[in-house]
Amino acid sequence: MPKTPPIVLRYFDARGRAQFIRHYLRVRDLAYADERLPVGLPFAAWTAMKGDRARAGPFHKLPVLHWGEHAVAETFVIQTFLHRAPGDEASLSERDNLRHAMLYSSLVTDVLTPIAMTIWADLSMPGVDTAAFASATFSRLSGHLSSLERTLEEWRWREMAATRPIMLADCMLWEAVDVVQHVFGEAARLQERQTLARIHAEAPGRDSFAAGLAPPAAVTGRGLASEAQVIPRIRAALAA
To answer: What's the pLDDT tens digit per position in 70-127?
Structure first.
């Protein structure tokens, strides 16, 4: 792997769209500065920074990754850049690079984004029936988890992961499964999804990923205290 330049990751003090990047940089021993902005309304620190394009990026939103002289914005672009810059892309076949990209896209679009929307639902959509919203979201998510389980089995993801360095898609996969478990608890029925359960329990890098979550951070910008009230309501809606 080529020598890496100074690295800075700037995001909120939440897991959100950046925790998988933290996992990756940590597990691959890539030294970086982890700049975290406080979360929770009214987001004063972010409001003060938002107009600074050098720190908030060209579209005035986070995360932003500084890799030497490169300032990389947009989560999907950061993923593509980080998959290429340390040499991971070059080490995989065309087929496996496509699989990594497809998995990452699906985890963001079909798992983490709907969960974040559910956590924010009562604030972002005033008057919404949050219990019905949570139940509908989880129904779709559960179907996707079944598809994900089958796909990872067909791709022999666990076996392949054991033969190569830990990559971004591995970090995102573990993070997504962990967030599912954290938010939905027993309703996620991970014990019935053996591949996902084993990835969460035994994946290369698991100890590093778990250590990176101490002290705990909120899943979203609502913050720990607010989510501690919201998540039990989501679980109660699914148990009803």
So the answer is: 999 999 999 999 999 999 999 999 999 999 999 999 999 999 999 999 999 999 999 9
| Joined tokens for residue 220 | 């979203």
- Segments in the chain below pLDDT 50: none
With helix as H, strand as E and coil as C, how does 80-94 read?
A: HHHHHCCCHHHHCCH
pTM metric for this prediction? 0.95
In a domain, 2, yes or no: no
Q: What are φ and ψ of residue 164, in 5° steps?
A: -140, 170
Q: Which residues are 218's β-sheet partners? A: 14
Residues facing 71 on adjacent strands: 66
Give the Cα-Cα-Cα angle 26, 45, 175 (nearest 5 degrees). 30
The helix or strand, by DSSP H or E, that contains position 65, with its residue range, turns out to be strand 64-67
Give the bridge partners for 216, in sequence order.
none
Full residue range of the structural domain in which residue 99 is found: 93-239
**118 and 206 together in one domain:** yes
Residues 115 and 224 in one domain: yes
What's the domain count of the chain?
2
